[in-house]
User: Which sequence fits this backbone?
């Protein structure tokens, strides 16, 4: 941790607030929701309308998908970005989407409001440098084999290039446990807050990989003081081209959101 | 060059684009020829065309096939000639912003491309076209001086006006990888309006004579690694892929166009345009403006353009109808105290959001 010059907190109350439109990331609970992949205009726009009505603040959706198998659906690329743009125009929700190739960074920035670096690319240093030179905030996911120190060093790469707006996102790590897809490490919420001034988000969808476990983790993350959540929602999860087992329907998501907002309000009250 | 099914199909697509473009050019000429013909049917001319085609049959194209094809084309030409189409001349290639404005003014009109602004004025004067549409001013670029020069001496009337947002698209040949694009062709003004966008994406601007011309060139050459900045209409006309819409740096880019005709506007309008000059004496321009102020008429445009006589022509637009008494009164007074006074027209103006 001693090499962290920009990421580390210098005083107790230091906190980075990132503005995206009217949203203040790092201040209020921000919920990003949407499908794993952009599959079609209808699927994306309908899901976007659903999550907006449920109270989500931003829309997620992958146009470029880093997949375990080279034969799995790789995403719609530029067409996917245009569909996200359409969804933004319809709902007004800012867009969060992943970039996997340094050659795509400027083009993804043309369409996205926040660019995401996925867990598999956390230590792709040329990609980190590239996103460090743009003006859009970066959501940096924790690599599934990475320690907190390695993760923060990756954030340091982005800040060192001149982009101060990094959101850290815990999405589960590899352990010997096979029941869950990954082991969601919620202790990172206070740990990140102790060490840095950057906002921390939780991704319970990838963190557990099982729909029946996600809800509890959402409440746990809010109780632990997360700055935001990123949750996978699909208009029809059984038809999803990726991550079918961990996506909520908009109706299920809406129910959870009601409780989540109440819990957030409760946790922020003075006692 | 690599030859496989994919590249051959790409060639076929390019050729199809050219054939359709040429067919449209031919139909435009057919519609224009109607202006000189007394009737539509001209059997001797048709025979002449069929004769030429028979002589021209070559290699894979046998005479019977060509004859059938041309009979279809000529039937459609006659069909178009029989319709009372409103031809609207504009300067530039198909897909130019003037064509976008023409379609905005009257979606049923047939926009006809002209090389120069002077050709638009001449063509309308000679009755070749029913209307002409010309840009007079742009929020970023200022006045279009060539058009304003022509407006001083024209006998044509202004019968309408339309202001449209100028929104540029980055377009490329279908199938090109956007990540491989290095150069962007367009008119110098369009490139300047997208300077930050180009810099952000490390694209090199290359000047071209026209925005729509750049799009046309891409479609004809099927070039890799290059894109053009043009209207969305040009992207559609030349079957190009839009990589991104609204790539201009500022959204205050608007152009105002005037619709010209040989005949005065018959319907009542809400806006008037006049042109006049004044003697080189103190207070002459003030004397004119004073009339408008006294009658409480709101001026929406005042432009001075040097004319050949060493004086200035003043263009003045105001809100009001020439059917109103106070407007008639003011115009009479202004005519008396200025030189070369002319009412260009009273018309309605459309503003496209």
Assistant:
């Amino acid at each position: 941790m001693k090499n962290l010059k920009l990421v580390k907190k210098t005083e107790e109350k230091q906190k980075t607030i990132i503005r995206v439109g009217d949203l203040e990331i790092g201040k209020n609970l921000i919920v990003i929701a949407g499908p794993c992949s952009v599959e079609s205009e209808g699927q994306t726009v309908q899901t976007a309308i659903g999550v907006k009505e449920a109270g989500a603040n931003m829309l997620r959706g992958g146009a470029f998908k880093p997949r375990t198998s080279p034969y799995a659906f790789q995403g719609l690329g530029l067409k996917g970005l245009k569909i996200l743009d359409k969804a933004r125009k319809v709902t007004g929700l800012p867009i969060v989407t992943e970039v996997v190739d340094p050659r795509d960074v400027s083009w993804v920035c043309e369409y996205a409001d926040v660019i995401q670096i996925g867990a598999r690319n956390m230590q792709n240093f040329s990609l980190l440098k590239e996103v460090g030179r743009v003006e859009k905030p970066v959501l940096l996911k924790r690599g599934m084999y990475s320690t907190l120190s390695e993760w923060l060093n990756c954030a340091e790469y982005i800040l060192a290039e001149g982009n101060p707006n990094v959101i850290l996102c815990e999405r589960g790590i590899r352990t010997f446990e096979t029941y869950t897809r990954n082991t969601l490490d919620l202790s990172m919420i206070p740990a990140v807050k102790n060490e840095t001034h950057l906002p921390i988000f939780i991704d319970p969808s990838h963190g557990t990989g099982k729909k029946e476990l996600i809800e509890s983790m959402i409440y746990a993350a809010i109780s632990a003081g997360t700055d935001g959540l990123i949750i996978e929602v699909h208009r029809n999860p059984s038809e999803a081209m990726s991550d079918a087992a961990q996506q909520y329907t908009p109706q299920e998501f809406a129910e959870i959101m009601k409780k989540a907002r109440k819990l957030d309000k409760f946790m922020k009250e003075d006692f | 060059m690599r030859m496989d099914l994919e590249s051959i199909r790409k060639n076929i697509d390019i050729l199809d684009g050219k054939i359709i473009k040429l067919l449209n050019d031919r139909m435009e000429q057919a519609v224009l020829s109607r202006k000189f013909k007394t009737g539509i049917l001209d059997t001797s001319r048709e025979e002449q065309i069929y004769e030429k085609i028979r002589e021209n049959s070559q290699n894979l194209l046998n005479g019977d096939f060509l004859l059938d094809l041309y009979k279809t084309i000529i039937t459609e030409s006659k069909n178009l000639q029989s319709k009372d189409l409103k031809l609207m001349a504009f300067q530039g290639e198909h897909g130019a912003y003037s064509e976008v404005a023409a379609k905005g003014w009257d979606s049923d009109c047939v926009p006809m491309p002209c090389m120069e602004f002077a050709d638009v004025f001449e063509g309308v004067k000679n009755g070749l076209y029913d209307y002409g549409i010309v840009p007079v001013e742009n929020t970023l670029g200022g006045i279009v001086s060539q058009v304003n020069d022509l407006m001083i001496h024209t006998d044509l009337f202004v019968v309408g006006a339309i202001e449209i947002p100028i929104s540029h698209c980055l377009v490329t040949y279908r199938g090109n990888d956007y990540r491989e694009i290095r150069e962007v062709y367009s008119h110098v003004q369009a490139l300047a309006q997208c300077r930050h966008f180009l810099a952000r994406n490390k694209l090199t601007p290359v000047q071209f004579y026209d925005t729509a011309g750049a799009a046309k060139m891409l479609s004809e050459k099927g070039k890799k690694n290059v894109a053009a900045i043009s209207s969305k209409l040009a992207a559609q006309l030349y079957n190009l892929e839009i990589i991104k819409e609204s790539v201009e740096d500022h959204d205050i880019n608007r152009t105002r166009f005037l619709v010209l005709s040989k005949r005065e506007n018959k319907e009542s309008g809400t806006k008037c345009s006049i042109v006049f000059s004044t003697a080189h004496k103190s207070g002459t321009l003030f004397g004119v403006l004073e009339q408008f102020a006294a009658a409480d008429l709101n001026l929406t445009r005042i432009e001075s353009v040097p004319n050949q006589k060493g004086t200035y022509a003043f263009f003045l637009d105001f809100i009001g109808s020439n059917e109103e008494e106070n407007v008639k009164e003011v115009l009479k007074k202004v005519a008396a105290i200025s030189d070369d006074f002319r009412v260009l027209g009273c018309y309605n103006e459309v503003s496209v959001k």
About this structure: The mean pLDDT of chain B is 92. The first strand of chain B starts at residue 87 and ends at 91.
